[in-house]
TrEMBL record:
It comes from the Bacteria. The keyword Zinc-finger applies. This is Biotin transport system substrate-specific component. Residues 15-75 form the CHY-type domain. InterPro entries: Mito_Tim_assembly_helper, UCP017292, Znf_CHY, Znf_CHY_sf. Pfam families: zf-CHY. Keywords: Metal-binding, Zinc, Zinc-finger.
Length: 100
């Protein structure tokens, strides 16, 4: 099973910063290639700042519910195409932090 890194991460990938029912998306850092619950967790635990990953990356997103990796286009659908769990629509507000 793919690991989701972060601060106080639960089994679905929710962290101390984002912990609603729909906060299940883990995002890949372009530098260390680890999936983090959020950029704040990443920056608290790593020695480098979170680096956006290309939208063309083959697996920039990980569903915390079923642990399937997703393409950017699959993530944009608003729910996991594998388990159908909804994603937090407000995550789009941070898109420039996570994707380039």
């Amino acid at each position: 099973m793919m690991q989701i890194y972060g601060v106080d991460v639960d089994a679905k990938g929710r962290c101390v910063h984002y912990h609603l029912q729909v906060d299940i998306v883990a995002l890949k850092c372009g530098q260390c290639q680890k999936y983090y619950a959020c950029y704040q967790c990443h920056d608290a635990l790593e020695k480098h700042p979170f680096a956006a990953v290309s939208k063309d990356d083959s697996a920039p997103v990980l569903c915390g519910n079923c642990r399937q990796t997703l393409t950017f286009d699959q993530y944009q659908m608003g729910q996991c195409p594998f388990c159908r769990h909804a994603f937090n629509p407000r995550c789009r507000l941070h898109q420039t932090i996570y994707f380039k």
